[in-house]
């Protein structure tokens, strides 16, 4: 396998490398590393994480190149034994939630995106931030809902959909649990400018 090292350069993924990545082929470990632009993480070809989109993949022949380009080592496959510090890992997961709070995110989805196990993510997130990933996402969603309630006259259905909580009874229940008020009461109390 080492014969391929000379023909490969850092850059975009070729078909052989792509096949190694999607098949988690450990025979290619050490020949190249792949980094994923959308997550900021780099892995070994054998990594069991969810396959990335091909257009987001960048190839590096050495782990240090990926590090120099700002990519962080995967928590799951630990390329060359490197490990992303917990605080940095949680910062990346937090940033992902901040940018995708309106998506249908679960602990498993977040763990997959962050290249870790759900159990490890839950435990580490709580250790670093004091709350679980789902509690954090709920805070982001409710804060966004408050913003919409005060600055727009959108109906609850639209606000719920915009923050990733399309189930309106659930949205109202969570909102009241967090704020002590229903969304309607909150809008009225905060002096919605359009009413």
TrEMBL record:
Membrane-crossing segments per the record: none
Keyword Metal-binding: yes
Residue ranges annotated for the HTH araC/xylS-type domain, each copy included: 91-189
The UniProt record lists the keyword DNA-binding: yes
InterPro entries listed in its UniProt record: Ada-like_dom_sf, Ada_DNA_repair_Zn-bd, Homeodomain-like_sf, HTH_AraC, HTH_AraC-typ_CS, Me-P-triester_DNA_alkyl-Trfase
PROSITE patterns, per the entry: HTH_ARAC_FAMILY_1, HTH_ARAC_FAMILY_2
UniProt name for this protein: Methylphosphotriester-DNA--protein-cysteine methyltransferase family protein
Signal peptide: none
Top-level taxon: Bacteria
GO MF terms, alphabetically ordered: DNA-binding transcription factor activity; methyltransferase activity; sequence-specific DNA binding; zinc ion binding
GO-annotated biological processes: DNA alkylation repair; methylation
Naturally occurring in which organism (per UniProt): Psychrobacillus lasiicapitis
Record keywords: Activator, DNA damage, DNA repair, DNA-binding, Metal-binding, Methyltransferase, Transcription, Transcription regulation, Transferase, Zinc
Cofactor(s) essential for the protein: Zn(2+)
């Amino acid at each position: 396998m080492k014969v391929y090292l000379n023909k490969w350069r850092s850059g975009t993924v070729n078909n052989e490398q792509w096949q190694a990545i999607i098949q988690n082929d450990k025979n290619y470990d050490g020949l190249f590393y792949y980094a994923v632009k959308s997550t900021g993480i780099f892995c070994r070809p054998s990594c069991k994480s969810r396959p990335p989109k091909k257009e987001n993949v960048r190839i590096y022949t050495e782990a240090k190149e990926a590090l120099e380009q700002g990519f962080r080592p995967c928590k799951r496959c630990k390329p060359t034994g490197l490990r992303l510090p917990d605080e940095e890992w949680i910062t990346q997961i937090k940033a992902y939630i901040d940018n995708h709070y309106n998506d249908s995110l679960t602990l498993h989805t977040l763990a997959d995106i962050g290249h870790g196990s759900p159990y490890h993510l839950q435990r580490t997130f709580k250790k670093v931030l004091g709350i679980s990933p789902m509690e954090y996402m709920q805070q982001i969603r409710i804060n966004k809902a408050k913003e919409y309630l005060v600055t727009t006259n959108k109906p609850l259905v639209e606000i719920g959909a915009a923050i990733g909580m399309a189930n309106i009874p659930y949205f109202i229940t969570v909102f009241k649990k967090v704020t002590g008020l229903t969304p309607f009461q909150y809008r009225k109390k905060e002096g919605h400018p359009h009413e």
